[in-house]
Amino acid sequence: MPRALLSVSDKTGLVPFATQLVQHGYELVSTGGTARVLRESGLTVLDVSDITGFPEMLDGRVKTLHPVVHGGLLARRDLPEHMQAIAEHHIGTIDLVVVNLYPFRETAAKAGVHPDEVIENIDIGGPSMLRSAAKNFAAVWVLVDPADYAPVLSVIAGGGDDQALRTLLAEKVYAHTSGYDAAIAQWFAGQRGEPFPDRYPLTFEKQQSLRYGENPQQRAAFYVEKTGAGLGALQQLGGKELSFNNLLDLEGAMLAIEPFGDQPACAIIKHTTPCGLATGVNALDAYRKALACDPVSAFGSVIAFSVPVDVAAAEAISSLFVECIVAPGFAEEAVEILGRKKNLRVLAGRASWPVGGMDYKRVRGGLLVQDRAPVPVVSESWTAVTTRQPTAEEMRDLAFAWRAVASVKSNAIVLVRDGATIGIGAGQMSRVDASFLAVHKATSLGHSTAGAALGSDAFFPFRDGIDHAAAAGVTAIVQPGGSVRDAEVIAAADEHGMTMIFTGARLFRH
Fold first, then answer.
1. What is the per-residue pLDDT across 236-293, written as a single tens digit (0 to 9) for each?
2. Which parts of 3-123 fold into alpha helices (H)?
3. What is the CA radius of gyration of the chain?
4. What residues form DSSP beta bridges with 499?
5. CA dist 60 to 9, 55, 69, 126, 297, Å?
6. d(Cα 78, Cα 295) in Å, to the nearest integer?
7. Are 13 and 139 found together in one domain?
8. Residues tagged active-site
9. Distance, CA of 257 to CA of 261 (rounded, Å)
10. What is the pLDDT of residue 57?
11. Which among 263, 484, 490 has a CA at the least distance from the CA of 388?
């Protein structure tokens, strides 16, 4: 009689699966709560102690760590000496294992959890059984995912074998246990207050395969941290499958609107950086102001809102070719309106950062890891360094400019009026070029730059950027400061009668 050992924390589909195993002649062995659930469903179950002859001990810390269990898993059926050895010690084979592990991540994520409780949720016997079974995958079915119950039952019911499926299941086991160990290692590093340990463990799971990467000749997939946050938490309400580039632009979109909280804001993103960003009295007003910044570049963009999208905003957006739209929510009729454009991807949610999440940058053969950048806010540490102080109206636009420039690729300059960008200079090799481009974009689209506010993501190394802004009529500037030529830059602003704020913080986005 084949034997199955079942010990799971996730009991999804467990009873139907076990019932069918019994129907196919399997004897069930189990532990603790899993055994109780199976017995309550009317199934006959042996306790692990029934086959080991050794009781569970140390509050359940020791129950499956026994030669009878691991001998039954590891014995190679094709080697007579293995079979003879377990027969001599009265060890029966175990032919199928279903294990998913103590909920370590979930326990560690609980607010105020005591370290002792977290440690008790470090599974020892489970990973050991999985690894033993997976090593002997040619003879032992090993499952960590309820989604695999059906395909395994299908093979068992057919009386055949499927080595390709067995190989896949073994692969899933080692990915599962390595991710589990990585989460534990991360927790211990956190207990030491060390965000950058000598070995940086990552635990990502594939959310979806992608048709291709940045270009059609590149293979790609989307992986997410198992946190329930980030882009993987967005719910797609309609449209085509997301692409690699869509996901990159969605990250830029969420970054752009994050500083505005629940204030109605709209960001129009092209190639991960805004081509228009604005606040307004509602979603429609914010969208119209953002679109006015650069309606030409908005073609084929990704649009993000900080507030739900209503019917009026949906109607306005439907006249523009857009790749994706993301918002915290959508009116039911708005989803129907946007759904008329079959290729438009509509996504709902906030895609918040995971608690304690880090920012990763890819480089060839390696990974750069850093703290996530703090959300830019107006701070009491800001200093007006020029003779002229900002007016209340200028201060409002400077605050908006500082929040807006944080999501623009460096070197970054934004021109702002009335809570909206009117010109954006992004990704330039020099700051004066970024200033020139922002002015050029604004004036070429009919925006007056006279009286505008300017935001810069880093200091001006020379006065030329100030002179260029003044020539365009800019009257107020917000920038980090910190250049060796700050005095020269301040003097230039004073010469032009401008007001300038130093924030003391840089906002590079490489």
1. 999 999 999 999 999 999 999 999 999 999 999 999 999 999 999 999 999 999 999 9
2. 14-23, 32-40, 48-52, 67-74, 80-88, 104-108, 115-120
3. 30
4. 476
5. 14, 9, 15, 12, 62
6. 70
7. yes
8. 135, 271
9. 7
10. 62
11. 490
Measured in whole angstroms, the distance separating CA 64 from the mean position of its chain's CA atoms is 36
What is the CATH classification number for the domain harbouring 490?
Answer: 3.40.140.20
Establish if 374 belongs to a structural domain. no
- The span from the CA of 499 to the CA of 505, in Å, is 18
For residues 332 and 387, membership in a common domain is answered with no
For residue 95, the domain's CATH number is 3.40.50.1380
Q: For residue range 143-190, what is the model confidence (pLDDT) as tens digits?
A: 999 999 999 999 988 888 888 999 999 999 998 898 888 889 988 998
pLDDT at 59: 64
Name the residue with tokens 């992986």: 223
pLDDT above 70 (res 53): no
Q: Bridge-partner residues for 205, per DSSP?
A: 224
Separation between Cα atoms, residue 284 and residue 290, nearest integer Å: 10
Q: Where are the alpha helices (DSSP H) in 358-422?
A: 392-405
What is the pLDDT, as a whole number, of residue 63? 66
* Entry pTM: 0.84
- Per the structure block, which two tokens stand in for 202? 């990552």
240/186 same-domain check: no
Residue-number span of the structural domain to which 298 is assigned: 234-348
| Average pLDDT across the chain, whole number | 90
Helix (H) or strand (E) holding 490: helix 486-495
β 273-279/27-30 pair status = unpaired
Where is the domain boundary, 325, 348, 371?
A: 348
So what's the pLDDT on residue 150?
92
Report the percent of the chain where pLDDT is more than 90.
62
End-to-end CA distance of the chain: 62
